[in-house]
Write a sequence for this structure.
C-alpha cells in the first residue's frame, strides 16, 4: 500500500511540474512574431518562446546561422562573434560578445551550435560552454544559456519556427530586470532575421 502511495505522489508531482512548465504567457504579438514567457520549475529567471514564420528555405536559414561572423547583422546587442572550432558545418563552437547598457557590464559567451536537419523537422540547439575558454576580466561570462529551434517547412518558401530560450546572464543583474526586458532582444532579433532572409530571397 505504501509503495502505491509513493508512486501516486511521484505521478502527481511529475504531472503538476509538467503543467506548471506548459503555461506560456503571451508577452508580445506583433508583425506575426509571438513572444511568450513562463516561469521554470526552479529558479527565478523566466524561459522564453518565439513562434513565427520566416520566408525562407531550411537551407537559407541554416546558412545564416552558420555565418557566425555576421551575427551583428541580426542578433540583438551582438558586439562580436567568431568561430573557435568547426567540427563540420553542422557542429560549430563559437565565441560571442554582447553589448549591454551602462552600468551593466558587457557579457561574453561560448556556444556550441548543433544543426540536425531531418526530412520533416530541422532541429537546432545552441548551448553554452562556459568553461571552454578562460574568463576575460572585461566581460561577465554567461554561465548558462540554451536555445532550441524546431523548424518545419510550411511550403516551398516558408518556415514555421518554434524557438525556446533560457539564460542565466551571470553577474549582479537583478532577476526582475532580466525578466522585464527578456522579450525585447529575441523579438528584435527575429525581425532582423526575417529582413535578412527576405533580402536573400530577393537576390
Amino acid at each position: 500500500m505504501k509503495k502505491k502511495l509513493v508512486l501516486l505522489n511521484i505521478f502527481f508531482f511529475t504531472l503538476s511540474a509538467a503543467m506548471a512548465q506548459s503555461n506560456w504567457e503571451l508577452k508580445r504579438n506583433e508583425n506575426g512574431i509571438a513572444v511568450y514567457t513562463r516561469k521554470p520549475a526552479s529558479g527565478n529567471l523566466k524561459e522564453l518562446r518565439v513562434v513565427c514564420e520566416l520566408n525562407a528555405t531550411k537551407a537559407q536559414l541554416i546558412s545564416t546561422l552558420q555565418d557566425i561572423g555576421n551575427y551583428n547583422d541580426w542578433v540583438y546587442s551582438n558586439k562580436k562573434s567568431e568561430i573557435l572550432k568547426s567540427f563540420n558545418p553542422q557542429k560549430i563552437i563559437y565565441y560571442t560578445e554582447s553589448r549591454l547598457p551602462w552600468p551593466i557590464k558587457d557579457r561574453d559567451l561560448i556556444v556550441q551550435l548543433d544543426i540536425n536537419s531531418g526530412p520533416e523537422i530541422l532541429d537546432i540547439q545552441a548551448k553554452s560552454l562556459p568553461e571552454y575558454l578562460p574568463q576575460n576580466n572585461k566581460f561577465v561570462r554567461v554561465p548558462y544559456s540554451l536555445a532550441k529551434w524546431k523548424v518545419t517547412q510550411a511550403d516551398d518558401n516558408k518556415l514555421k519556427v518554434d524557438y525556446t530560450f533560457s539564460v542565466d546572464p551571470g553577474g549582479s543583474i537583478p532577476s526582475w530586470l532580466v525578466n522585464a526586458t527578456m522579450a525585447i532582444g529575441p523579438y528584435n532579433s527575429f525581425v532582423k532575421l526575417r529582413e535578412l532572409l527576405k533580402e536573400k530571397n530577393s537576390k
The mean pLDDT is 86. Residues 2-21 form the longest helix (20 residues).
